[in-house]
Amino acid sequence: MTDTGTNGSGTRSWQGPSAPERLGILRRARSVAIVGASANPSRASYFVATYLLSSSPYDVYFVNPRAETILGRPAYDSLADLPVVPDIVDVFRRHDDLPGVAREAVSVGAKALWLQLGSWNEEAAQIAESAGLDVVMDRCLKIEHARFHGGLHLAGFNTGEITSRKQRIA
Questions:
Q1: How far from 25 is each of 76, 89, 114, 122, CA to CA, in Å?
Q2: Contact between 34 and 63 (Cβ < 8 Å)
Q3: Which positions fall inside the CoA-binding domain (predicted)?
């Protein structure tokens, strides 16, 4: 049986931060490093990167040892190679890589480890939390940022329109 990131019994025991706590993480942050960033427009990390660059106040850095640039910006081999200590490490990596990324985030002094939708690894969470990092798992940084800043449509897209009327589906 493959480990799905649970506590071994098939259930999730880790409790993530509440919505106000997640908002606090986002408000305190000034920089985001996207580990596993991709230059491929069909990848989720690319979509998140374009959103963060265009619609957030964050300085965004890309970590991908196989890329030289992503969206016209340099890509770094590791978190240790970044020119800054990132506040949030946003991770797009395979399940088995997550504890190692958590260790690297701790090592560089990041403040938060953010595992994207579908990523849940209690070992990684324990590593990060034991070192004092905030941890968010199985949530999209883009969706959470847009949600808290009034630009989220049910499909996760910024509609550019603020209204209290229910949308009509044609």
A1: 24, 12, 10, 19
A2: yes
A3: 26-119
Q: Are 145 and 19 in contact (CB under 8 A)?
A: no
Q: How far apart are CA 139 and CA 141, in angstroms?
A: 6
- What CATH class does 19-148 carry? alpha beta
Domain boundaries, the chain: 19-148
Coil vs helix vs strand at 9: coil
Query: Which residues, in sequence order, are bridge partners of residue 34?
Result: 62, 90
State whether residue 91 is helix, strand or coil.
strand
Distance in angstroms (rounded) separating the CA atoms of residues 101 and 123: 11
Question: pTM of the entire structure?
Answer: 0.83
**What pLDDT, in 10s, does the model give residues 109-136?**
999 999 999 999 999 999 999 999 999 9
Check pLDDT > 70 for residue 162.
Answer: no
Q: Do β-strands 69-70 and 73-76 pair in parallel, antiparallel, or remain unpaired? A: antiparallel
Q: Which pair of tokens denotes residue 119?
A: 């990523």
